[in-house]
Structures are given as structure tokens and as C-alpha cells.
Amino acid sequence: MPLSKKRTLTQYLIEQRRRFPQASGELNALVLDVSIACKAIARQVALGSLAEVPESWAAGEVNVQGEVAKPLDIISNLMLIKQSEWSGHLAGMASEEMAAPYQIPAEHQRGKYLLVFDPLDGSSNLDVNVSVGSIFSILRAPQDVIDSGRDVTEADFLQPGAAQVAAGYALYGPTTMLVLTVGNGVVGFTLDQSLGEFKLTHPDIRVPEDTQEFAINTSNSRFWEPPVKRYVDECLAGRSGPRGKDFNMRWIASMVAEAHRILMRGGVFLYPRDTKDPAKPGRLRLLYEANPIGYVIEQAGGRCSTGRQPMLGVKPSALHQRIGVVFGSKNEVERIERYHHDPVTREAPAPLFAERSLFRD
Ligand code: AFP
């Protein structure tokens, strides 16, 4: 069989590094370590119920979010840690599954990057064999951490999404894919199972600016704020409503899979701030869900927002901070932002928007 002409992840990273002649290659090595962990997680996920899980893990543990972590959440977390901690490129790590930052053990060298991840997003879908994924974000450690090699603290990770050096996700679906940005557009690799290599199959991913597809968990509609209600009501009103066109809806409940669909064909995803639980200003986590996906989406020409402000500009206040998230096709996200800033929308009861022509464009 002739060798495929498609470039590998390693080749792509070497090409990207040539743009920065002074670069040491540490970022590339770190991304490759993450990709190896993702391959190992993909294999574990594919085993499904065939996987041997220690009995003590079978019931699951409650993580820092108060959610039950599946055995695969814990295994994936360990795989990412073990594959990345030894290389000397990391100053520390943080994950959905760990309450506090992870310190690089004393026997390993410490480096200049911070790795933040959700090891298995959508894991409540595992039992029903729906796509899940790992989301990662790479930040530069504060200079004093790099200079002193001291232990990392929560404050070291509280950097806005705009400070990310690289971000991406692996999607474990019918094929395993790695989607990545190192700040120069977005590329997608498909795992060639026979070679065990990620091959560049999607060299320039772009999110279409317009869409007729939205994704939101409508069971929360009674808790939505008026701007979100207005937006969804208008979509549902379809061709006879103010938008003048029919919309399609999707909800996978795996944010990483929704992000992938939007990167492939456009769309808008909302998990907005709502009034369901006053203690939680949103469902998704800023540092290891919203920011990395936001960076990827924006690098692909889409937009990511809290509804009120650009996601990548938010200054985090806590490692496990939750936030309202809206991302996808640029024109739709901008429309939702406009509704949040429109004083009439903010006050008015939502049904008005769909049923009267007052608010037609
Ligand atoms: P899990 O990783 O616990 O399955 O959570 C997935 C998630 O954070 C995100 O991927 C989904 O979009 C969202 O939660 C689904 O939330 P709902 O259960 O409210 O639909």
C-alpha cells in the first residue's frame, strides 16, 4: 500500500515551529505528549464495557464539582498526567477532576507551561455510546514560577483565554480526531489506527458566519434570561417569524461533540447563564471548557462569548469557575450579544418577541 501524502501531527508542528526560529520545541513536545495521552484514552473509551475497571472504582467518585466521576474520567485524568508530567515542559497542571493544581513531582524537571484539561467531556454519555472528548488548554506559567521552579498556585492559572498559547480537543467518535490551534488557524487530524498516527485531514477549518442550526438544552427554558428566550423563540418561529427562515436544532450533551459539529458545518451552541441554581452562574467551566473551545472557535473565524462579553477577555476568578457560554457562527453569536445589550430585550417578557412583528429586523 503506498504511503499516504497526508502530513502527521509531528510534521505539522515542525512546520509551525519554523515560523518562530527562536522557539525551543518545548510546546511541540508538550502537544505531542497530550496527543499520545489522547490516543491512549481513545483506546480505553473504545473498549467500552469490555474494559477491566478496578472494583473500587466501579461506583465512581464525587469530584470537586459535586458530580459523580466515572472510572473513565479518572483513568483519562491519570493518562494525561502521567504522559505529560515527566518531560520537563510543565510547571503544573489543573483538571476538572482535581480540586487543586497538580504539582510536578520532585523527581521531574519543571518547565514553562501550564496544562489545563477536562479529561473526558460528556462522560455521562459513555453508557449510551455517544461521542465524548478531551479538551486541553496550554498557558505560559508566570515568569516567577519559571524562574524559581516553585509550586504552582491556583492564582497562576487565572489567566484570560486570550493568553492561551495553544488549545484543542480530541474527539472519540466513529473516528478519533485531534483538533488544534497554536494561534495560526485551526487544523484537524484523524487517527490512522493502522499507523497509530494523527494525520492532517482538515488543514484549514473555518466556521461559516451564518447558520440555521442551534443547540441548547430546552428543558432549562423556564430558567433562561429574556435575551436567550428571545433568541430561541425567534429561531422556533421559523420562516413566519422575525428571522424569516426555518432553524434546525441539535443537543448531544457532549459540548466537545457540539463544538466539532459547529466547526465542520456551522451552528450556534448556548449553555447560557440561567436562574436554575443561583450558586452556579452557568453550567460549563471557564478554564478547561469555555476558554479552549472559545480559542479554537475564534481561530476558525467563529465567535465565543458569555452573551455579555467576549469569552477570551474574561479574567477568571477561580480554577473551577462556571460561566454562561455562547459560541459558533459569528453573525448568530453577535446577534445574541446584541439581545443581551438591548435594554428592551432585557426587560420584556419573552413571548412578545416571537409572536409580534414589533421586533422584526
Ligand atoms: P459531563 O462531562 O458530566 O457529561 O458534562 C458534559 C457537559 O459539561 C457538556 O459537555 C454538555 O454540553 C453539558 O454538560 C450537558 O449538560 P446537560 O446535562 O444540562 O444537557
What is the strand and helix layout of this fold?
Blueprint: H1 9-17, H2 26-47, H3 55-58, E1 61-62, E2 68-69, H4 71-84, E3 90-95, E4 102-103, E5 113-121, E6 132-140, H5 143-148, H6 154-157, E7 166-172, E8 176-181, E9 187-192, E10 197-202, E11 213-215, H7 226-237, E12 248-249, H8 255-265, E13 268-271, E14 284-285, H9 286-299, E15 303-305, E16 322-323, E17 325-328, H10 330-341, H11 343-347, H12 351-355
Bound molecules: 1,6-di-O-phosphono-alpha-D-fructofuranose.
Write up what this structure looks like.
With 361 residues, the protein is an alpha+beta fold. The protein has two domains: 7-202, Fructose-1,6-Bisphosphatase, subunit A, domain 1 (Fructose-1,6-Bisphosphatase, Chain A, domain 1, 2-Layer Sandwich); 213-341, D-Maltodextrin-Binding Protein, domain 2, CATH 3.40.190. It has helices spanning 9-17, 26-47, 55-58, 71-84, 143-148, 154-157, 226-237, 255-265, 286-299, 330-341, 343-347, 351-355, and strands spanning 61-62, 68-69, 90-95, 102-103, 113-121, 132-140, 166-172, 176-181, 187-192, 197-202, 213-215, 248-249, 268-271, 284-285, 303-305, 322-323, 325-328. The strands form four sheets. It has an eight-stranded mixed β-sheet with strand order 4-3-5-6-7-8-9-10, sandwiched between helices. Strands 12-11-13-17-15 form a five-stranded mixed β-sheet, with helices on both faces. Strand 11, helix 7 and strand 12 (248-249) form a beta-alpha-beta unit. Helix 7 (226-237) packs across helix 10 (330-341). The radius of gyration is 21 Å and the shape is globular. The N and C termini lie far apart (57 Å). 1,6-di-O-phosphono-alpha-D-fructofuranose binds at residues 67, 121-125, 217, 253-255, 271, 283-284.
